[in-house]
Amino acid sequence: MDFSSVFLNAALAAVSPANLLFCFLGTIVGIVIGALPGFTSTMGVALFIPFTYSMHPATGLIFLVSIYCSSTYGGSISAILINTPGTPSAVITTIDGYEMTKNGEGGRALAMAVFSSLVGGIVSALALLLIAPPLARLVLLFGPVEIFYLALFGLSVIVGFSKGSLIKGLISGVAGLLLATVGVDGISGVYRYTFDNVSLFEGIPIVPMVIGLFSTCQVFVLGEQKRTTIVHDIATFSDSSVPRMSDIKAHWFNMLRSSVIGTIVGIIPAAGMSIACAIAYNEAKRVSKHPEKFGNGSVEGVIASEAANNGVTGGSLVPLLTLGVPGNTVSAIFLGGLLIHGLRPGLQLFTKYADVSYTLLVGLFIANVMMFVVGLFAAKQVVKVTKASTDLLAPIIMLLCVVGSYAIRNNLFDVGVMLVFGIVGYLMKRWGYSTPSMILGLILGPMAEGEFRRALMLSRGNWSYFCSRPVSIILLVLIVITLVGPALRNRRIMSK
Amino acid sequence: MTKYLDEYLPIAFLYALSAYFWWDVEDFTADSLMYPRALVGVLLVLTTLLLVFTLMKKMRLPQSKDENSPFKFCVVLAASIVYVFAVPFLGFAVSSLLYAPATALLLGYKRKGMVFFVSILTVVLIYIGFRTVLKVPLPTVTLLGMTL
Questions:
Q1: Whether residue B51 is found in the same domain as residue B8
Q2: What is the mean pLDDT of residues B16-41?
């Protein structure tokens, strides 16, 4: 089948009633999660992966991508109305967003936030559609050594850019790789570290572990807080929250430039939303006719930040879908969503599973439009959820954790795994270890081990084979740079 | 005391984890043993580095912005453990309807009507969503002839 017919079929599938319904539900869930300070896009996607298990893969992935896009936007609602960024990516939106609200322009800020998010999302979806399929062909150049290095590169990206200590990040990643060795060894058939428990023969189940580390952990964090609500005061506004044509005309270039910045930064593994927002905000201020207004309620600042952070969403999926290297933590979790549907990143995703992947790509456009429509009408109402008591939210999230971890294999053992990793996640957070690194170690572990051993077999134990091709040397250098670079940069900043 | 525990307990745990993965390899073939052993080696080196840096006071623990209550943490942890163990015996619906309101009230939530309303609504929505829409079974138990 040629590209046009594949794309047409995908477009028709994307607008099927089931896909639209789940896109709508994902949007609502995402906006609510994004608006709640302390709840991240990562947690939202992790919690809802199991819900997609019984769905058609395309429907499930559209649902997850809707949560991703809309939770990224949702963070701006609380940033603008309660001066608290709902997600870390909305920190820069807070600078001018809340000032605008104080100046009586809260409606205008919300309107331009949702419109800029739409533009950012559409630009990044377009980039994903155009860049991902040809980039996936790169994988054909890779042998077992390069794929092994690619898995390590994916892990090093998350480790290198994780908050806090590099050693703790590395320990978390290696612990994840080690936990991935649990189960029947795919090459020799040996049972490793299974305690003769049938439920561990396939290895530690990924989804319950993801839910435990990201969502159950949050139950404990919310439950132990002394304060019982996330916020007390929500600012009110009286102006219209519908985007004004005059604003769009005056700031279209800022919107477009920030979207492109966000998309490019998103494609660079682990560069992250905060960096994209900072660069876009800085650039908007640099070329603005009124730089003095930045920080005092400039709509240009809100536009730059929001277009950039939603630009990252599609961008971060480019390296994930093509090379299996997650662009950020959310896309690392999204990788788990792909795997439970039997999909693996790479060329096959755009050939054998083209129907699913192109439906997802078209779904990303629809998710952004849906986010705009829902955001336009619901922002003012959604922010009220931040008044919900954490004492009530914690047990309700726990119900979702239990049902989510049970749903994949209908196995109560998985619920226990979720609880254990919930406690582990809580302790890791308390002790400053990186949970995303551990998850990625577990997800990429089997691939890394399989390719490592295949390479050793091919080379008959000759270790120089691991540095025999230019691509493998480049990847090795990239791994070192990704691990050492952020640490050196942090040291330089500290010494200044 | 808590600070020392927070600093050294994870290191002790990491050594224990490494020891387990190093020694519990009775039936492994040489081929299947090499990779985990290599990882354990790396983990041991990293943990020892961490220990050295901790002894030299070069590692800092993350600071929480929120004021936390150890009592509330114990409540939510204990209730969650009991809940997970109760699910196989009471089924998802019954155990959830006991766990959610009880935990919220124990944590200090005051509005009793609201807590029961939200708990029942959530359980009903999950039940309908999973069993009817997504056709995913949930843990059930038969009570008085009804499957819950």
A1: yes
A2: 91
